[in-house]
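STRUCTURE REQUEST FORM
Protein name: Transcriptional regulator MraZ
Source organism: Candidatus Woesebacteria bacterium RIFCSPLOWO2_01_FULL_39_21
Requested output: structure tokens
Priority: standard
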Amino acid sequence: MLLGQYQSTIGEKRRVAIPKKFVRELGNKVILAKWYESCLVLVGEERWQEFMGKLTARIDIITSPVRDTERFILGSAYESQPDSQGRIVIPESLSSFAGLKKDVVFLGLGGRVEIWDRLEWMKKEKAISKEASLLLDKLSEVKIKEDRKEV
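Status: completed
Returned output:
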């Protein structure tokens, strides 16, 4: 499972070292794409189909939101193979989208890794911390509503 928070630095040629723990979990081929809130997502090739299925699994028809989700993520995706030192090159289009400068943060989130510009992540983390209890309350409300539907 991909867990934790690690810092890294982007080199001159937009190369960045994926944390070793993540490289072992992700495998020999990875997919890097745009993600929400101006960060990037990194997923192992073997889990990619499952990952995309989670985003659109509840929809049987290819509706406009499904098409736009596919365009946003699949249309920006790049396959990559980490080198012997666990480094990948972040394409210019993705680096620009996420506003990546020099220092980045890798966040392990179960089945995926998010890559953030370090300063942007610090802002986001601070905002999440302020709202953490409210977020938990909202998630609990959703779960209660789902449980009532099943009864």
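Reviewer notes: The first helix runs from residue 20 to 26. Residues 2-118 form a domain with the Chemotaxis protein chec fold (CATH 3.40.1550.20).
Form closed.
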